[in-house]
Amino acid sequence: MPYEFFIGTRYTRAKRRNHYVSFVSFVSVLCIALGMTVLITVLSVMNGFQREIRTRILGVASHVQLSGTGGTLADWKRVATEAARHEQVVATAPFVSAQGLLTNGSAVRGAFVRGILPEQEALVADIGNHMRSGRLESLRAGEFGIVLGSELARALGVMTGEKVVMIAPQGQVTPAGVIPRMKQFTVVGIFGVDHYEYDSGLALMHLQDAQVLFRQGDAVTGVRLKLKDLFLSGAVARDLARALGPSIYASDWTLQHANLLRAVQIEKRMMFFVVFLIIVVAAINIVSSLVMVVTDKQADIAILRTLGAAPSSIMKIFVIQGTIIGIVGTSLGLIGGISLALNVETVVPLIETVFGFKFFAKDVYLISEVPSEVQRPDIVLIAVFSFVVCLLATIYPSWRASKVKPAEALRYE
């Protein structure tokens, strides 16, 4: 074993002459471990939050959406056929999109109405797998059935089998003036995707019923597509826009929800830099602890120099000491961070129960649970950054130790 390593490891253990130096080293290890634990947990929660939002959005929205100019698409069957030829397209489904008012007694709620073909909609969205009551296949042409989001149904005070009235925005001209067009629908199902925006504002009906209600004729609003790889949606949208011509507008899910996804990504980056400052503070503690060790060990350094130790060897001793502190702190931080991140869904409900508050309000953050997803690149990045910061923190104290002059250090010994 090189004597630099032997001496460096001995300096990290408790000293009989100066326990304060050992205490500062312990605090440095603890700060690094806590900083890494917090950083890993925060990034894992942000990853889980991003995953949950993406999953729940894509459970209702489409990967790519094709629509015509003016909000209508007459030759939608041709568009769907040509889009299906793309190698990334798995399924297609037409839809009619509109807004309306739903009423039940004195309860009135605005709703985003979507007319669908249930058998094709099931291929591009997962709403059918999130039915609280009823079935999506219960939507049949001419029967004017409707499927409501769980929060929307609760606000209207209706259950499966009850009636609601839809008020269409297109008015009907009569000799007495323009009166609103109304149609009674039967609630045939209630879904809940645990995404407040959709649960509180989305209503589904059969495509033909929507065409009749909103006077679309045989036209639709557009065609929804599901892809093999959702992360290629931007490229696929551009390919289809070029292939189908200027009369077709193609948009993908990242464009439709760009602000939300961008906000989550920016928040994740900012949280990384803010929490990483904890590790920087721990590195400053390493600097202070090593400077105190150098001051305390000047006589030892001088004796080593008189015995022939080179300045580079003196530097190695204190670099090794700081590196050991960094390795121990990083290792403990990795263990603590990964353990907490993997169990955050158990720990957070306990904290919420004890203190009586919710971390994520459902109507604000779209989801009500704290998700977590540990990603290997984040773990590697945090570990490397933490170790590099700890290693850089040893440079100045080690350089200062190498500059100790033996004669001056031993003058009063």
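Second entry:
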Amino acid sequence: MDETFVFGPALIEAHELEQDKGGPRWPCVAVTDVVAELSREMARSYYATPTQSPFARELMVDDQGTVFVDHLGLWLDEEDDPRVIEYWAPRYRDLIRRKLKELPRGRVWDKWRWLGDYHDHALRLRRQNRRHFVTGLRAQHGFTRFSDTI
């Protein structure tokens, strides 16, 4: 480890998870089952209210059971200036919409659709403006908060 890089078994395991053909195929930072279970144990053991632990707030679970970092939710929860959200959320939405329109249906298009469903779910959980949603369509992918699995 130095000021610019961290290396160790967890990084190797994360890389292998991303490379595994049977692993998550979605555009997310997935964590292994071992890391997910350790996060649950830490939340239960060290927090009076486990569902309020950082683990519960920082992770999400998709409908395939993949536990991943809730990157959009983290940003929305931490952003103090609503003008920043008003500036960036439509740009993020428009990028996803454009890719869904441009790309032929297939493996890559499916990744963008997953991302769109996740985007809308994260916004919905935080009661963000509906005009920032990617689609008004019924989601093809479902998500739950990690706290529901603790």
